[in-house]
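Researcher: Let's try something more involved. This one mixes different molecule types, so please make sure each is placed in the same coordinate frame as the others.
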Amino acid sequence: MKGLKTIKKKTGMLTNRLLKLCTFQYLYLTAILIFVLPLQSCYYDVIVTDDQSQSTEVSLKNNVLPIFNTTCITCHNGVTALPNLTAGSAYNELISGNYVNITTPENSILIKKIRSGHPYEGALTETEINRLVRWIEEGALDN
Ligand code: HEC
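Model: All components are placed in one shared frame. Result:
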């Protein structure tokens, strides 16, 4: 009888230990879930954005013309002698008028003019200007 009690006691102790171990593991897992996973998702976020900025091509039609449409064509619309920046003409005007410099995009007349505060300071956001620069960097394609 005494032996049986010891066994029961020992089994009890073992179960307790196992339970403690399990609880500890749960805590450990929870800690991982709470701290490590969000960090990982941040890491992935950064990678994804980075990838996008590296590999996504800037398109004339989707990224450049909309900027001209919103901010430039009130004046650059073909009615005056100014470079015509409306959808049908902008590309030819920019290329034939040498307004873009593919080797040194920042030296493009188009970019220098905008950076000098044309048509007024803050007319385009830094993001928009960078998009134009990127379009030129990528070869100023009719895309
Ligand atoms: C309020 C009218 C107006 C708006 C809006 C305007 N421009 Fe102009 N732009 C002019 C005038 C006037 C000139 C000629 C005088 C000068 O060079 O500043 C000019 C000149 C330019 C030139 C130089 C042309 C050359 O032959 O040297 C470029 C490039 C240009 N604009 C680009 C743009 C772009 C890009 C936008 C939109 C972000 C824009 N402009 C918005 C009136 C405007």
